[in-house]
Amino acid sequence: MNRKADERLLHQLEQKMLSHGMRPPCHVTVTVRDGVVTLSGSVQHEYQKRAAVHACRATSGVRMVVDNLQAPGFQNVWSTKKEWEPAKPKPAEPNPVAPTAEPGPAPDASAEE
């Protein structure tokens, strides 16, 4: 692909990002080189990330999409088995015994008079 084709593709993709809701607070940067699209920046939700990738893949002239988008609020609950195991009770922490004050000299009653 030549540079003009990449620029046309970039313009198309930027318009698609806007039509798919990629507006602030989303910060999506699209770059194109030889038909390879790189998405970088951040979105609020995982579904926005998927929508951006899908919009790029569905665009004529795109050879490949490199997804470097971050969705900080997203947590993959399917990633590990441990997330579904019951929580183990924490061992009881020992009760620290407060040091007792040593008895000091009794207050002098005559000093108050």
Notes on the structure:
- The protein has 113 residues and is of the alpha+beta class.
- It has a domain of 68 residues: Histidine-containing Protein, Chain: A (2-Layer Sandwich), CATH 3.30.1340.30.
- It is built from 2 helices and 3 strands.
- Strand 2, helix 2 and strand 3 form a beta-alpha-beta unit.
- The termini are far apart.
- About 5% of the residues have low confidence.
What is the approximate shape? rod-shaped
| Number of helical stretches of at least 4 residues | 2
Largest sheet: 3 strands, mixed
Work out the radius of gyration. Answer: 31 Å
Give, in spatial order, the strands making up the sheet with the most strands: 1-2-3
Strand-residue proportion: 15-25%
Which structural category fits the helices and strands? alpha+beta
SSE succession: HEEHE
Number of strands: 3
Overall mean pLDDT stands at: 78
The CATH class label of the domain at 3-70 is Alpha Beta
CATH level-two architecture of the domain at 3-70: 2-Layer Sandwich
Descriptors:
three-stranded mixed beta sheet; 2 helices; Histidine-containing Protein, Chain: A; 3 strands; 113 residues; single chain
Which helices and strands, and how do they pair?
Blueprint: H1 3-19, E1 27-33, E2 36-42, H2 46-57, E3 64-70
Parallel strand pairs: 2-3
Antiparallel strand pairs: 1-2
